[in-house]
Write a structure and sequence with these properties.
The protein is mainly α. About 20% of the residues lie in helices and about 5% in strands. The protein is built from 18 helices and 8 strands.
């Protein structure tokens, strides 16, 4: 018995000493979640066996163990998790308030979890779904858990939102097949949103007739009845399957094919009998006010009122040329009857356009043609008393005939070019003696041949105005004797007479050459 008691004391003292030893070697306080194991190292550590610690962690964290074994959840998807120790990520003995999870929300890859983020979920902040301090793995993953308030169906269609909706947005329906219902979606209906037909969130016993949804789109306001499908199709309201040419006795041609139904059918569709004559619909558009009769089709076409098949050149004695082709009928046919005989002389219509005020007679077509009063002038000026030469051919009629009076226009150059006379009338008014119609700078006057005073010596280098100093009306008269121009240059003051040429030459006055008779 004594031996057993001693062994017992030895065993107890060994354990006490081990606890004291462990306490002495404790590297630091545990995190608050593990605080209850502060004095129980064996809860997390196996002596002399580092690999055994992983199993002790998983024994406590059973949900993590299940994830690792099933390869699910965040831990189950970590590469090489079966060989990694827990403390490689989660260190301990760092104090009660230490963060041993090390969750970086910005860098965390949610795709490694059982709830992969897609669509609009990618743009959400973490706290949008993880609103409390509960473990992240306990956050509900069903749509209805977060989106119950957004359920416009108010629970009538159940809680499996994913059957119809996708994560890209509530408005985009991805799973529900409407073709398996009593109302398969065709053409334009495929693009319509659910709310367009189910505005109140009611999906059971919804009316399937066109007018049930499109009554507000009925431009006929019930005039054509409730059977929209007789004319319209599901492709679009504007695409009409009703064929007026085949289904009625009145074929639509030209602009009639483009007019709206109500333009002609202004009453009840099946009760109103319409007349087919033009005047029945277009009497209010008859600009002729009945003066051309009631047979509109004799002149007009179905392609438009402005386009007529009536040919004035063929059906009358007055062919239309130039601008006459564009003139409206009533511009000439001003009477009450289109068949009245009209005067075909120009002045019968254009007397008020005659800017010559009758001075050039009544035969306007001698100069003008139907292309326009000012566009083409066929008058041949060369047959007049003033043939057009040089730059005169480029001048407009108004440049010379400023008052539209053609017969009384002066022919002398000075009448038009008085302001262009750089000689200031010193050379008279007969500009044509020197200049030509090709331009003022082009001149061909020969002083030696066309006058009695041949230019020699210094005289050949002088400007005209040095000798021609006074204004001349018609004939140019200039003294020929030296004294006539050089009286002021006579240093002899007349003592040697007026015949300067006896001593002086025309090259230079300073050179004296006494000439003897």
């Amino acid at each position: 018995m004594l031996r057993l008691f001693l062994i017992f004391l030895l065993f107890v003292s060994a354990n006490v000493q081990a606890g004291i030893f462990d306490s002495i070697l404790l590297p630091g306080d545990l995190v608050s979640g593990h605080a209850k194991f502060q004095d129980n190292c064996k809860k997390c550590h196996l002596r002399f066996d580092k690999t055994g610690q992983r199993q002790l962690c998983l024994d406590c964290h059973k949900l993590v163990r299940a994830d690792v074994e099933k390869k699910e959840g965040f831990h189950g998807r970590i590469p090489g998790i079966r060989k990694r120790e827990c403390n490689s990520c989660h260190g301990e003995h760092q104090g009660r308030k230490a963060d041993i999870v090390h969750l970086d929300s910005a860098a965390f890859d949610h795709q490694q979890t059982d709830f992969k983020l897609k669509g609009q979920h990618l743009n959400l902040a973490c706290k949008s779904c993880h609103k409390d301090s509960k473990p992240k793995r306990k956050t509900p993953s069903r749509c209805i858990s977060c989106h119950k308030k957004q359920d416009v169906h108010k629970g009538k269609l159940g809680k499996k939102c994913q059957r119809c909706h996708g994560e890209s947005g509530w408005a985009k329906i991805s799973g529900f097949d409407h073709d398996k219902t009593d109302f398969p979606l065709r053409h334009a209906h495929k693009k319509a949103t659910c709310r367009s037909c189910h505005p109140d969130g009611r999906f059971v016993k919804v009316a399937g007739r066109c007018v049930s949804c499109h009554k507000v789109n009925d431009k006929h306001r019930g005039q054509f009845g409730p059977k929209c499908g007789d004319c319209h199709s599901e492709r679009a309201w504007k695409k009409i399957k009703f064929n007026h040419d085949k289904d009625t006795k009145y074929r639509l041609r030209g602009r009639h094919a483009k007019v709206s139904c109500t333009a002609c059918h202004d009453g009840k569709l099946y009760k109103q009998k319409l007349k087919t004559k033009c005047i029945a619909c277009h009497e209010g558009e008859d600009r002729h006010k009945g003066s051309y009769g009631r047979k509109c089709a004799d002149c007009h076409q179905l392609t438009g009122w402005q386009k007529t098949h009536f040919r004035h050149d063929r059906d009358t004695d007055y062919p239309l040329f130039g601008r006459h082709k564009k003139v409206h009928c009533v511009a000439c046919h001003t009477g009450e009857n289109i068949y009245d005989d009209l005067d075909t002389q120009c002045r019968s219509c254009h007397a008020h356009d005659d800017i010559h005020q009758g001075e050039l007679g009544k035969n306007c077509n001698q100069c003008h043609d139907p292309d326009g009063w000012n566009k083409v002038i066929v008058f041949d000026h060369d047959l007049s008393r003033f043939p057009l030469l040089g730059l005169h051919t480029l001048a407009s009629c108004e440049d010379c005939h400023v008052d539209q009076s053609y017969r009384g226009t002066e022919r002398v150059c000075g009448s038009c070019h008085e302001g262009d006379d750089v000689h200031e009338k010193r050379l008279g008014s007969r500009c044509g003696l020197c200049h030509t119609a090709n331009g003022w700078r082009v001149w061909s006057f020969d002083h030696d041949k066309q006058t009695d005073f041949r230019l020699r010596g210094a005289h050949g280098r002088l400007e005209c105005k040095r000798c021609h100093r006074q204004e001349m009306t018609d004939e140019v008269l200039v003294p020929k004797a030296c004294y006539g121009c050089h009286r002021g240059d006579d240093i002899h003051r007349g003592n040697f007479g007026r015949h300067c040429e006896r001593c002086h030459g025309e090259d230079d006055f300073s050179k004296v050459e006494i000439r003897r008779r």
